[in-house]
Design a protein that fits this description.
about 0% strand; mainly alpha
Amino acid sequence: MFRTPLTLFRILAIAEAVSWTLLIAGLILRATADLPIAVSIGGGIHGFVFLAYGATAVLVALNQRWGVGPAAIAVVSAVIPYATVPTEIWLHRTGRLRGAWRLDETPDPRDRRPLDRLLRFFLRRPAILGLVLVLVVALVFVVLLIAGPPGGKG
């Protein structure tokens, strides 16, 4: 399913946009129908997908060897409603999502860096990579749930 960085990034970019819709719908339902649970549900889904998209953006940025600028734009685009989709389009059109996962070392000296070795280790073991990413995202999600929303629940 995620045979290329493009497919993984595109799916998460679209999922992030959909999660914005769920959050906004929840806010509307809370304001118009006095259903605060709608924000809890939509916000929870959005929060988890937001974190998953951020992790995906970092993973793809490392694999594709983006500079700090494109990587930061990809991550920050999740903060702006629906911005992940135009960001994905821009990254695709500029060739930044072209190519495969870097599973093997090449003559490129960057391939000998510890971070690149670690990346290849996990990319060769997609089940382990997926499990680690889900666990990290879930852990961050739980910590943020315990910490509560910005500004408190008041």
